[in-house]
Automatic annotation (TrEMBL):
PANTHER family: ABC TRANSPORTER PERMEASE PROTEIN HI_0355-RELATED, ALKANE SULFONATE ABC TRANSPORTER-RELATED, MEMBRANE SUBUNIT. Residues 73-253 form the ABC transmembrane type-1 domain. It is found in: Cell membrane. The lineage of its organism: Bacteria, Bacillati, Chloroflexota, Anaerolineae, Anaerolineales. This is ABC transporter permease. The chain crosses the membrane at residues 21-39, 80-99, 111-132, 138-162, 183-213, 233-256. GO terms for cellular component: plasma membrane. Keywords: Cell membrane, Membrane, Transmembrane, Transmembrane helix, Transport.
């Protein structure tokens, strides 16, 4: 049997983008726009109740050209990013401490659960009163929303490390820092990034809640302006901008996950 040495076997690349991988999302978007246009046409609702996609598109162009959309989106994005950073950092450190100490968990857990029983909408006015209507109160609200899912996933990820691996590291006389760097962080990373995905998407909600309570800029403020002026197309524009922000942040975390967890794909090949 003749074997052509020039012919190479192609190894599967599950992380590589594939042609046509995004067609279901595009088809879903097209069907949604079609259904929206049909609803406007056959219900005969006024534009201040349900604007058509064309009306929203024209309002989007106006807001983009006069700079208001980019200005308010930039404010909300800065609040989201800073809140995501603060909430993730705090949740990661506290989650690691909880995972390593059962006593500390028994002391702190009731307060954490109680904090999640109160809706953020109820806490937001207090934060605005205490810290003012500036950007810091919005960052805190974002951090509160991000905090819990990242915390839980950090605890679960650290505790999921097999005990035999800890025994192996002790037998190798590894230091505390070496155990953290070479064992606990890589082992907990998949679960941690899953929580970060959720937190990245939810962080946008925190910014909008804070801007609803008290703000003079941001996409939440833009929604309030559109609602007060019965400019429903502007409300739709701001909502779509928020959706785009959430999808972008979620996609960045998903890309980061695929980049940092390449070793899992190589191991499964």
């Amino acid at each position: 049997m003749n074997i052509n040495p020039a012919r190479k076997l192609k190894t599967p690349t599950p992380l590589a983008p594939r042609l046509g991988a995004h067609w279901p999302a595009l088809l879903s978007l097209l069907l949604g726009l079609t259904g929206w246009q049909l609803a406007v046409r056959f219900t005969d609702l006024p534009a201040f109740i349900l604007p058509s996609p064309a009306d929203v598109g024209m309002r989007f162009s106006r807001a983009l050209l006069d700079g208001s959309l980019l200005r308010h989106t930039g404010v909300t994005l800065s609040e989201v990013l800073l809140g995501l950073l603060m909430g993730t950092a705090t949740a990661t450190v506290l989650g690691y401490l909880l995972a390593k100490s059962r006593l500390f968990e028994r002391i702190v857990a009731p307060y954490l659960v109680a904090s999640q029983a109160v809706p953020v909408v109820a806490i937001a006015p207090l934060l605005v009163i205490w810290f003012g209507p500036g950007i810091f109160s919005k960052i805190l609200i974002c951090a509160l929303i991000v905090f819990f899912p990242v915390l839980v996933n950090t605890v679960v990820g650290v505790r999921a490390v097999p005990s035999v691996l800890h025994d192996l590291m002790r037998s190798l006389r590894a230091s505390r820092w070496q155990v953290l760097r070479h064992l606990e962080i890589p082992a907990a990373l998949p679960v941690f990034l899953g929580g970060l995905r959720i937190g990245a998407a939810l962080s946008v909600i925190g910014a909008v809640v804070g801007e609803f309570v008290g703000a003079d800029r941001g996409l939440g403020f833009l929604i309030n302006v559109g609602r007060g002026q019965y400019d429903t197309a502007l409300v739709f524009v701001a909502i779509f901008a928020l959706i785009l922000l959430a999808l972008t942040l979620y996609g960045i975390v998903a890309w980061l996950e695929s980049y940092l967890l390449k070793w899992q794909a190589w191991r499964n090949q």
